[in-house]
Design brief:
- The chain has 305 residues and is mainly β.
- Helix content is 10%, strand content 40%.
- The chain has five helices and 27 strands.
- The strands form four sheets. Strands 1, 2, 4, 5, 6, 7, 8, 9, 10, 11, 12 and 13 form a twelve-stranded mixed β-sheet that branches. A six-stranded antiparallel β-sheet has the order 3-15-14-26-27-16, with no helix packed on it. It has a five-stranded mixed β-sheet with strand order 23-22-17-18-25.
- The longest helix is centred in the first third of the chain and has 9 residues.
- It is globular, with a radius of gyration of 20 Å.
- It starts with a helix and ends in a 12-residue tail after the last strand.
Length: 305
């Protein structure tokens, strides 16, 4: 912990995430129970009710966020006792605003407690307005990915496991191994096409989006409200894609009318609606992922006479 305070005192302009381990909890008291999330009816996204420094803290559950972050105003108003250090990030980041870092006293998610790491504070007031409820931060993969875990968007649960052993019936996904962040990116393609592209597993997105260069156009459009880490929600009109089958390694899943965008590097977003079609088993450290098909009535055990 002394090392964290010393580094915090010297941080100024830096490649903030060059020392990635500082943002990953180093001391963890693992619990045994699955974590249950709440459904935000307005957006369809999931919220985690946690304890931060012994007080309630609500996070957006976001497998597409490489780091865990707190709303700056939440930190200033609810935790003035915690020192914030403003830094200028000259490394890779999708955040426009100046970042603040701080030493996290404790973060309890379910019955698991995380300690000894740096947190990030950034303006996130617009998320609360978008979701119609108080959102104090974003629970990202820097915390969730400290152990392999099963994630069920359908059942709204996360279960950490000590070993990267997927359950029976899990299907291996084709994970990109060359990306250094905490998230899981997949090699993907449209069934019937040989052209591959990257797809991000993103539970913090309320829509699935595809690059218009790789996904067939349906000829229709839709107007939806969008938001991101930097801006308040705004209504935008997008073309929609045709319903097709997405191939992710050995696993296939239908995608109905995704939003089409002109996406740099053709990175698709697999949002919460798509993720409800199957469970996931994710191993961030090992860069491995599996899809777990939902049980059907045919799979259910029959009662014996």
């Amino acid at each position: 912990m002394k090392r964290l305070f010393a580094l915090l005192a010297t941080m100024g302009a830096c490649a903030l995430f060059a020392q990635e381990e500082l943002f990953r909890p180093q001391k963890i008291e693992w619990g045994e129970k699955p974590v249950t999330f709440e459904l935000n009816e307005r957006t369809g996204l999931l919220l985690a009710k946690t304890e931060f420094a012994g007080k309630p803290c609500t996070f957006l559950v976001d497998t597409g966020a490489t780091h865990t972050s707190w709303n700056l105003s939440f930190m200033q108003e609810k935790h003035p006792e915690i020192a914030l250090r403003q830094v200028t990030n000259v490394g890779q980041s999708n955040v426009d605003a100046a970042l603040h870092v701080f030493v996290v006293p404790s973060l309890k998610v379910g019955d698991t407690t995380f300690r000894q790491f740096l947190g990030i504070a950034v303006p996130l007031d617009h998320l609360s307005k978008t979701m119609g409820t108080e959102v104090d931060g974003i629970l990202g993969m820097s915390v969730m990915g400290r152990r392999p875990f099963r994630f069920s968007a359908k059942d709204r649960t996360l279960t950490w496991q000590a070993e990267a052993t997927p359950p029976e019936g899990a299907v291996a996904l084709d994970v990109k191994k060359d990306l250094a962040d905490n998230c899981i990116h997949l090699n993907a393609r449209v069934d019937g096409s040989s052209q591959t592209f990257t797809a991000l597993i993103d539970s913090g997105a309320n829509m699935t989006s595809m690059d218009s260069k790789v996904w067939p156009d349906s000829g229709a459009s839709t107007t939806i409200e969008t938001t991101n880490v930097n801006t308040m929600n705004s209504a935008q009109t997008f073309k929609t894609g045709a319903t097709r089958t997405l191939v992710l390694g050995d696993f296939k899943t239908p995608i109905a009318n995704p939003v089409l965008k002109d996406i740099p590097d053709s990175i698709a977003i697999l949002g919460i609606g798509t993720l409800r079609n199957f469970d996931l088993f994710l191993d961030g450290a090992g860069k491995q992922a599996w899809a777990i098909p939902h049980a059907t009535k045919a799979d259910a055990p029959t009662s014996q006479p």
